[in-house]
Structures are given as C-alpha cells and as structure tokens.
Amino acid sequence: MNAMSFDATLLDAQGFCLIPQFLDDTQLDTISEWIFQLSHSKRGDPVSNKASGSHRRGGLRQLLERVPQLQEFVRSPGVRTLVEPVLGPSARVVRAILFDKTPAANWVVPWHQDLTIAVREQLDLPGYGPWTQKDAVSHVQPPTDILQSMLALRIHLDDCGDANGALRVIPGSHTYGKLDQHSIHGLVASRAYLTCAVPRGGAMLMRPLLLHASSKAEVPHRRRVIHLEFAAAALPGGLRWHQES
Is the Cβ–Cβ distance between 173 and 209 less than 8 Å? Predict the structure, then answer.
C-alpha cells in the first residue's frame, strides 16, 4: 500500500483527495479473488443467494459480513494511515459496499450527497429520519454533524476513467451542509465539476456531503469500487452502527 500522496489539507478544502497508487497487483488480485468466490458461490445458504442477486444488480451491501477476509484488510496500517489523520485513532468502518458497473449493470447516478447511515435497529430519535430498509438493514438520515464527522474511502479494483463512469464531484460543496434539490441544482449550474479518474489500485477519500454523480459507462468495462465508510463517534440514544469493525 502506498498512501504517500495523501494531503489532509486538500481533503479539508475540496472534500476529496485522490491517491493514484494505493494497492499493488498482488493485493488487487487477492481481493478480486475473494469477491469472485462470493459472487460465484454455489452454496444454497441465504447469504450467498442474496449476495449473488445483489451482485447482478450492480454491487453488494454488507460487504465485510459477506467477505470476512476484508476485515483484516480494513484494519491494516495502509488503510489506517489514510483514515486516522482525518478521524483519529478511534475511527472504524461503519459500512462497506461494493459497486460493480458492468455491461449488464450500467446505471446513471444523479447529483447527490450521501445522507444515510446503516444502523442495527430503528430507534426514533430527534433529528434522525426518514427511515428506510435496504437488504433488511435499517438506514436513516442522521443530523448534519454526524455526516460531517465521517469519511469514505473508495478503493478501485479496475481502471475508472471518464468513459467508464468515473465519479464527478463539485469541489468544496461539502462545506454547505445538507442541500435540498433546489440548492443542488443551483450549485451544479453555477460551479464547475471535476471528473475523478482513478487507475486500478488507486483510491479516493471523500466526505459524504460532497456533491457527486456519475454517468453510464460509454465503454462499459468492469468498474469495481470498494466503498468503505468510517466514523469515530458513537451514535446517541442507544443507536448503534450496523457495522463496527
């Protein structure tokens, strides 16, 4: 792992930071094999069936539960070197998702912020809502301060350029807090966006409130991204993160 190019100041200002080289070929091949084994599992247990169905839809939720080998990886020094300068030593993974754009699952993601978190169970607390269910896991929109204290790490298992559905972002938009649709349209119309082309083995750090979008891949090759969300703070009122690695 190579995180030498990480710039925490740039992350604070822009809401994102690109790391062109993070994993080497051996690490990439190992992680890819873990995911391949899961998505092609012949076992008849409910987790395998659900995972395979999610995979056909373009990804997998609850990735650390389904690929337990990744739990050691997310605690490795290379990952911690990226996360701890931003969130401190108590940061832990609270959600893990695989996004997998393929010719059969090639979708548009409109401009948005990541506003929900995954939790163990629904508890009605002031400032938390609305609630939704995704793959039988409770999700909720928390207060803005919770989202502002989180960090996402996106690890690219394949090359991802402009023609292959790369993420587009509006630098600095995370500083505006939660945005309604009118404000999102206004920022998109008035601010220039950047396309975050990331090579195989590269990574991207981003704040959840950063405005981002992606188009369908014009050249729909495989585009697998492991999306890890980290938080340091405990949730209030007995509410618990769904994943606490």
Answer: yes
CA–CA dist 176, 226 (Å, integer) = 26
Question: Distance between CA atoms of 215 and 107, rounded to whole angstroms?
Answer: 7
Q: What's at 185, amino acid-wise?
A: H
CA dihedral of 167, 170, 176, 177, whole degrees rounded to 10: 0
Q: Angle 98-103-104 (CA atoms, 0-180°, nearest 5)?
A: 75
Predicted TM-score (pTM) of this structure: 0.89
Query: Mind listing the domains of the chain with CATH numbers?
Result: 8-231 (2.60.120.620)
Rounded-to-integer distance, Cα 114 and Cα 140, Å:
11
pLDDT, tens digit, 9 for 90 and up, residues 35-74 = 888 766 544 333 333 333 444 456 788 999 999 999 999 9
